[in-house]
Amino acid sequence: MSLNGTLSTAGRSLEVFSAGVQVTGENIANSGTPGYIREEIALETGGSYSNGNLLFGIGVLGQGVQQQIDLYLEGRLYSASTDAAAADARQEIYKQLEVELRELGDSDLSTSLSEFQQSLANLADEPESDSLRSIAVQQGQELANDILDLRARVDQLQQDQTGRIGSLVEEANGLIDEIARLNPRIAGLEAASNFSSDAGGERSQRYAAMSRLAEIVPVRFRENPSGTVDVYSGSNYLLLTGSTQHLEVTRTSENGTVTSSVVVSVTQADVSRSGGEIRGLIEGRDDILGGFVEQLDQFASGLISEFNRLHASGEGTAAFSTLTSLNEVSDTSAALNVVDLPTTPEHGEFEVKIQNELTGLVETTTIPIDLDGIGADTSLDDLQATLDAIPNLSATVTPRGQLQLDAASGYTFSFANDSSGVLAGLGLNTFFTGADSSSIGVNAAIVQNADLLATGQGGGPSDGRNASRLAEFLDGPVEGFNGRTLTEFYESVVTDVAQSAASEETLSQGLATYRDSLQSQRDQFSGVSLDEEALKLIEFQHSYQAAARIISTVDELMQVMLNL
What we know:
The protein is of the alpha+beta class and about 575 residues long. It is built from 12 helices and 18 strands. It is rod-shaped and about 150 Å long.
C-alpha cells in the first residue's frame, strides 16, 4: 500500500470522525428538546483494492445520518395518546361540573330545597303570619334562582367546550399544514441520500407535529419512499400526496339548542367521536354536561308540576278578583290533555268558590274535566263556557290562548280539590312558573301578594293544611322519579356525577400510565442519553486524533523519502 493510499484513508477517517463529532454535538444540543429523535452516523467499511499480491482496504465510509426510531412503537404511542387525551378531557369536565354543583358548601341546591321545605313547615304552624308567608315566598324564589343559576353555569360550561373544540380544530389544521410544509422539504433534502432519515431536524419536527395531532384526533401515518408521509384519521385522509383535508366545525340547531360537530373539509365525514381530545370534549359537552342538564330539567319539571298541582287546590288568606292563566293553549278547541302544557291534565274535576264579600257567603261549583277519551273531551273553549256559566264569574279566552277569569263587583273567587291537574296545567293559582330548569320562577302575583300563597283548604285564615301538604310533598315520592322524593332524586344525580367522575379519573390514570410506559420505551430507544453521547464524543475524539497521527506519520515518512 502506498503512502498516498494511507493518506487518503486517514483523510476519509478525519471526515467521518469529524462528522461523528458533529452528530454527537447535535444530539447533546437537543437533549432537552421535546420530541427530538436521537441521530447516529451510519458507518460502513470501505471497499478493497489489490496491490500486487496484497489486498488493502480503503478505510471507512459515512453512509448517512440515521434517526433512531421504532415506527411500530411510534404508532402505538400515537394511539395511546389519543385515548389518554380523550379521557383527560372528560375527567376535566367532570371536575368542572363537581365544582359548579357546590355540594361541599352551603350554597348547593340540596340546601335551598331543604330551606324551602322548612319555611313551608313553619308556615303550616302559623299560616296567619305575614312574615312567615314572606319568608316562604322568598325561599321559593331562592330555590328557583339557584336552579336557574346552576343551569346557567352548566350551559356556560357547555359553551366553553364548544369554544375549546374550535381552538383545537384551528390547532389541528395548523399541524396538518406544518406536516404538509415539511413533506417536500424532507423529500428534497433526502433525494440523494442512502438513508431515509438524513433530514433529522425536519423529521423530528414532523414527528412532533404528528404526535400532538394524535392527541387531538386519531392519527396513523404511512411513509412513502420519497420521505413524505400520508396521514390518516380513521378511514379519512388528512394528508395524501397532492391533497390535504382540514377539520371544520359545523353547527346545527335542534329545538333552539345550537350544537357543533367536527368534520373533514372535503369528504365531510364526521370525526367528532372518533377519538382524541376533540372526542373527549364533545362527549363531555353533550353526554356529561348535556346528560346532567336533562336530569336537572327532570328535577325542575317534577318540582314545578307536582308542587303546582297541590298549590292550585289550596287557598290563600286572600282570594282573586281577576286571574289570567300563565300558560297559553295554541288550539283552544283541542282536548286539554293533547295540547302542550307543563302539566298534562287528566280526567277529574275541581271546585270554584264564589264568595260574596259583603255577606261572606260562599257558593261552590264543581267543574268536571272530561278527558276519558270517550265522546268529546274537554277543551279550553269547553272549560271557558262552563266557567262563564257560573253566576258572578266571567270567563273569556284571550287572543293568545289564555283563560281569563273575572269576578263580578263585590265578589271574589278561589279554587279547591283539583283532581284533574287542569289548574296547574293552565297556570291558575300556581306557585312556580316555567317548564324546566331554564325557565323556572315564582308566580309574580304571589311575589307581590304573599297572601295568595295557598296555605289552606277552605278552613279559614288559620287553616294551614295545604301548607303542610306542600311541605310533606318534598319528602314524598314523585311520579316519574321511580318512587324517589325530589331530594333523593337530586342526591342520586349528584352521586352519579361523583361516581362517574371517580371512574373517569381511574380510567384516565390507567390510560396515562400506559401512554407514559410507551413514552418511556420511546425515550429509551430514541431519546438522548448525555452519558452515552459523552462516551461517543470521547471515542470520536480519540479516533480523530489517531487518524491525524497517521497523517502526521505519513508526512514524516514522505519527508524522509524526499531527503534521500
